[in-house]
Every structure is written in C-alpha cells, then in structure tokens.
Specification:
Blueprint: H1 6-27, H2 30-38, H3 40-51, H4 54-69, H5 72-107, H6 112-124, H7 126-133, H8 139-145, H9 151-156, H10 160-175, H11 179-204, H12 207-222, H13 231-256, H14 261-278, H15 281-295, H16 300-313, H17 316-332, H18 339-355, H19 362-365, H20 367-373, H21 381-385, H22 389-413
C-alpha cells in the first residue's frame, strides 16, 4: 500500500488537530481539553526545530543566491520583478477586501445595542493597545535601522530585514569578485544551504505530528465562541483571503508560471500548513525553501533571493485585514468613510506592510496607524484582539501561498522550467 505523501499527511494532521480541538471546546470535556492543550509542548519543540534554521538559512541563502546571480543587471531585473509583484498583488488584495467589506457592512450592519457594548469593551482595553503600538517603529526609524551597524547583533535580535540588507550587499560583493574567488565563497555557502535544507527535511518528517500538536490547543482555547460578537468581520476577512488565493494567485500560477494547479498546490502545502498553524511566515521559510529547491526545482539563485525577502515584507493578508477592519470600525462607530480616508488607510497599510516590527499580533497592532490615517478611533484595535487568532492563521497561510507563487513566477520569467510538484 502506497504511503500518502508529506503534503497529504500534513493536511491530515492539521484537520485532526483542529477537529479534536474544536470538539473539545464544543463539548467542554475536561479530559479532551487537557489532551488538546497538553500536546502543545511537542508542537513547540517541533516548530523550534524549524525556527533554529531560519537565521542561518536566510543569511547563507541570500549570499548564495545573490552571488550566483552575479550579473548586477540580472540582480536588478529579478529584484524589480519581485518587488513589482509584491506591490501589485498587495494593492489588488486590498481592493478586493475593500469591495467585499463595503458589501458585508451593508447586508449585515451591527445593531446599535451591540455596537454600544463593543465600543465600551474597546474603551476598557485601550491601554493594551497604547502599550503595544508604542513598539511600532515609524518610517524614519525603519529606514535608519535598515542598515545595521552590527549585522551579527541584528541576527541575534531576530531583526531579519537589516540582516537581509547586509546579506544582499555581501552577496553582491561576492558576485563582483573574480571567478576563482567568487566560486570559493559560493561553494561554501551552497554547501551550507544544502546541509540546512537536509536538516529541514529531517525536521519536516515530523510535520504531521507537529502541526497537529500546534492546531489542537489553538482550536480548544478559542473554539467558535470567540467568533460570536465579531463573526461577520472575521468571516469577511477569511472570505477575502480565500477569494484572493483563488482569483489572484491561482491564475498567476496557472497562466504565468505555467504549472498544473493540483500538483503545485500539493507541493506548497507544507509551507502553507506551517504558516497557518504558527502564524509566522518566517517559521514557514525553511519548508518553503525545501519545496522550491527540491520539489518545484526552482534555481538556487531565484529561490534564495525571493523567498527570504518575501517572508520578511510581502504581506497581502495584512492589507486585507487592515482594509476590512477600517470599514468595520467605521460602521461600528457610525462614521462616514470617504474616498480620501479609504485611500489614506490603504496607503498607510501598504507602508506598514514593509516597515512593521516583529511583535506579537503585529498585524492587529499595526492597524492603529491605519485607523489614525482614516480618522477612526484607535481604541477599536483592542476589540479585534480577542478574535485575531483565526484571521491570523488564514492571512499567514495566504502569505505562504503568495511567497511560493511569486518565486515560481520569477523563476519562469527567468526562463526556468518549473516542476509542478
């Protein structure tokens, strides 16, 4: 009997974990809740095994990828196409979310009584919002910190974007060396990347169990009750994310990357599943690199450049969340939302996508500047914290789809033949 492939086993583990956790939450069974939450340390150990590979993989992969590209003109072309795709897909995702949100607040408006109680709850928890949003860097600080005075410290602190800047510049320096010196450096970085990918492959063998152990406690703790008061908002965000995946990324993969959708979907499942259960694109990066290099057969220069950069700054799910939240808050407070306010909110969301610091519930707290730009009450952020976990899982899953589709598109644009998976 043929053993199901890893993607199928991961999907099964995710379904079992979510199903058992929801059953425990729904029935209120003490022993089921204890089991669902008790397996969490096993999931944490597994995800730590992936995360320990992230920093060394990003650094060596970027040096290897940029160095192997060599030609500065080709590097500029790949970089321009990559950032162009990021920008285009993020903007279109925001417009889809805006259209859907304006529709849902009309067909399912919040009653005055519920709105009043929600506003009171938001005011009561406003202190937490102020504390967390204080950690968000402004554009000026973001630009200054892009060039790290100490790249080793930046890596140790988990400041991935400054480390990426250093790694890209170092890779460009390596690419400009004479062929003998260049090859010596790249042979070392290529070997380190290969060793890290092998290590990740071993860790991913435990992915079905790890994903199950991460999904079960989340579902058990939050259940469906969390969605009761903000069900329409959460549904709007999740639906917009699903629409973007189907309407934007599936056609891009099929028509421009020219891959078969079913095998391609199976191939990218490991990275999507890790992103979905952990809420972290960076945690999913090793799995995405493994898929790109070993299953899709994308070249090392393209995969090693596109995926680390994408995992750091490409967040189409965030603009979906910000846009839907802005429309919802306007409805909740009975405020008019004009074209100028919408444009200001979407522009601010786009900027926050690239400049947000890595803090817990980052997308929720970066909503504060977006609401400010649209002249909406910032205190409403506190209201959305309680139901963030479910939208967070979906938007991070979308990020993983976006990252891997972008890598396939860039590879195809560079004339590479891509395996469907």
């Amino acid at each position: 009997m043929r053993t199901p492939n890893l993607s199928v086993r991961i999907a099964a583990g995710l379904a079992l974990g979510l199903g058992f956790g929801l059953l425990a939450s729904t029935t209120g069974s003490a022993w089921m809740i204890a089991v669902a939450t008790g397996v969490e340390p096993a999931g944490t150990i597994w995800i730590n095994g992936i995360r320990m590979c992230v920093i060394p993989l990003v650094a060596t992969a970027l040096v290897s990828g940029v160095g192997n590209i060599g030609d500065v003109r080709r590097l500029g072309r790949v970089g321009a196409r990559t950032f162009g795709l990021f920008f285009a897909t993020i903007v279109v995702s925001g417009l889809i979310a805006l259209t859907l949100s304006l529709f849902t607040v009309r067909i399912a408006p919040v009653s005055p009584e519920v709105a009043a109680s929600m506003r009171a709850a938001a005011r009561a928890a406003a202190g937490q919002v102020a504390e967390q949003t204080a950690q968000i860097r402004g554009i000026r600080e973001f630009l200054i910190q892009l060039v790290p005075p100490n790249p080793v410290k930046a890596a140790a602190d988990g400041a991935l974007l400054p480390m990426i800047v250093f790694s890209v510049l170092l890779g460009a320096g390596v690419g400009s060396l004479d062929e003998g010196s260049r090859r010596k450096v790249l042979d070392v970085t290529d070997a380190i990347v290969a060793a890290l990918i092998r290590l990740i492959g071993w860790v991913m063998l435990l992915a079905p169990i790890g994903v199950l152990c991460l999904a079960a406690p989340v579902a058990a703790r939050f259940g469906w009750e969390t969605l009761r008061s903000l069900a329409m908002f959460v549904l709007t965000v999740v639906l917009a994310i699903c629409i973007v995946a189907v309407v934007i990324f599936a056609p891009l993969a099929r028509s421009f990357a020219r891959v078969k959708l079913v095998p391609f979907s199976r191939a990218i499942t490991p990275g999507v599943a890790v992103a979905f259960t952990t809420g972290s694109s960076l945690a999913a990066l090793p799995a995405m690199m493994d898929t790109a290099l070993n299953r899709l057969r994308i070249s090392n220069p393209v995969a090693s450049f596109v995926l680390p950069v994408a995992a750091t700054i490409n967040r189409p799910g965030s603009i979906i969340y910000h846009t839907a939240a802005t429309v919802f808050v306007a409805s909740l407070y009975g405020l008019a939302l004009g074209p100028g306010q919408i444009a200001a909110a979407m522009f601010t969301s786009l900027m926050m996508t690239f400049s947000v610091a890595s803090i817990p519930s980052a997308t929720v707290f970066t909503l504060a500047p977006v609401l400010q730009a649209a002249a909406m009450p910032v205190e409403a952020v506190a209201l959305l914290l309680g139901v963030d976990r479910i939208p967070d899982m979906f938007r991070t899953g979308l990020h993983a789809i976006s990252h891997q589709t972008t890598a396939a598109l860039i590879a195809r644009g560079e004339g590479e033949d891509i395996a469907s998976g």
